[in-house]
């Protein structure tokens, strides 16, 4: 092989390795697949809130990280906060729910 070809192969290998490392998950950062999964979970939780007549979906914020759902916001009744947590726990893929919803 010529030197130029070796350099080109090394550059391609370095590029592939860098891409693989950049997409790898860490304790503080999700991998690409986990990010997509979490976005789907968040969407399903919000849709379930919207479908429930007692929970006001616009008052509750939903964030998901590695399957752990965090709820925050304000509701009028104490039962609405616990109902929101129960709904979130019922969504496939949810590992745990941290309920930071407060009563006004």
UniProtKB/TrEMBL annotation:
Q: Sorted alphabetically, which PROSITE patterns does this protein's record hold? A: BON, PROKAR_LIPOPROTEIN
Alphabetically list the UniProt keywords: Signal
Q: Which residues form the signal peptide?
A: 1-24
> Which residues are in coiled coils?
none
Which Gene3D superfamilies has this protein been placed in? 3.30.1340.30
Q: Does the keyword Transit peptide apply?
A: no
Tell me which Pfam families the record gives.
Answer: BON
Looking up PANTHER family in the UniProt record yields: BON DOMAIN-CONTAINING PROTEIN (PTHR34606:SF16)
Q: What is this protein called?
A: BON domain-containing protein
